[in-house]
Structures are given as structure tokens and as C-alpha cells.
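Budget justification note: compute hours in this period were largely spent on complex prediction jobs such as the one shown. Inputs:
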Amino acid sequence: MSEFWNQRYAVDEYVFGTEPNAFLASQASRFSPGQRVLAVADGEGRNGVWLARQGLDVLAVDVSPPAIAKAEKLAAQHGVTLQTELADLLGWEWGENRFDVVVAIFIQFVGPAERTLIHQSMRRTLKPGGLLILQGYTPKQLEYRTGGPSQVENLYTAADLRREFAGMEFLHLVESEREISEGAGHSGMSALVEMVARKI
Ligand SMILES: C[S@@+](CC[C@H](N)C(=O)[O-])C[C@H]1O[C@@H](n2cnc3c(N)ncnc32)[C@H](O)[C@@H]1O
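Corresponding output:
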């Protein structure tokens, strides 16, 4: 798994660009400086660094060493502190009630069983009242093939998320089809699902 990502990231350019994910950036008004944020599978750091630039205290976790190195370089370029941790999230100690915000942007690297474990861990590590901000591709993305995994079982719908995160308060849960432009990795018309949910 990490070998696949190490090879993808072994280029000078940032595969998903250096600008934050547009959906995440659209949620800026929900953040307050000093909040503790977990950026899940943050890759080359475009989102973690942007969150740190908003005055947030960010831990970025990813399984790929070149991704972490590029994230640290991007943080240095912006003069912000980004805490990083190299780890496989399937065996990571997520802890309980640790974060004000958990950010999960395109983390579709597992099928349903392991996904459920990751989703449970994300919910557990949020503090009560904390926010989970997520974007991913729906199965329809296999018609567009403009990014994301090719395994249909790794993709999900808003209904899947509503079921998996039942008991949280859904502030935003929407499927949409639109153009995105995130480096060479995600580019073109895309079938997306996005969610903001609060831990009660
Ligand atoms: C599509 S990329 C998205 C990266 C980042 N979230 C973004 O939006 O730019 C998926 C990321 O998942 C990471 N990843 C894959 N399997 C992982 C695992 N088991 N534990 C931690 N990270 C993993 C990869 O290294 C890669 O950076």
C-alpha cells in the first residue's frame, strides 16, 4: 500500500497541488484559531498546511515518507508549524476525545470493513462538539475516472455516510458532480460526496 503512494509521490511536483481542497477551504468560517486538528492521510500537506495557516494546531498523519517530507517542506515555505506523523492508520493509536476537528479529504484507500474501523476511530478521537469534515468520491466517479481509486468498494454515497455516522449531527451532507482541479491527481468532472458532522 505505502509503496504505491511512495512511487506516486516520488516526483518534484505536488500530485494533488499545493492549494487546499476547495470544499475544505469553503468551511473556513467553522474554525477558531488554536483548535486542535487531525488531518487524516494528509499526503503532501496541502490541507494540513492550509489549516495551520488558519492558526490551527495541526497533526498530519500519513503512511508515505515522501508525502510527509513534502508536507514538511510546504509548511516551511509558508512559515507555519505542522506536526507530522508517519503511520499506518489501520494500526494507529487514534485515542479518544483528542481533536476539535478531524479532516478526511479523499481517504478512500480501503474497502468497507476497514473503512468502518477508520470511521469509528475518527468519531472516537473527536471531542464532544467536534467537527468531522470529509470529502470523497461516489461510485459514479468510475464513469469519470478523473481521480480516486478504481475499486468500487472503496467509494461511498451520502446514504452510506449517513448510516456510518448515525448519531452525529449532520450540518452538511451533499452529493454533487462538478469540475475539480487539484494537481494532476484530481482533475476534471468528478462525482463527489461531502460532509460536515458534529459529534454530539
Ligand atoms: C488520495 S491521497 C489524499 C491525500 C490528501 N488527503 C489530499 O487530499 O491531498 C490518499 C492518501 O492516503 C495515504 N494512505 C494510504 N493508505 C494509508 C494508511 N494505511 N495509513 C495512512 N495513510 C494512508 C496515502 O499515502 C495518500 O497520501
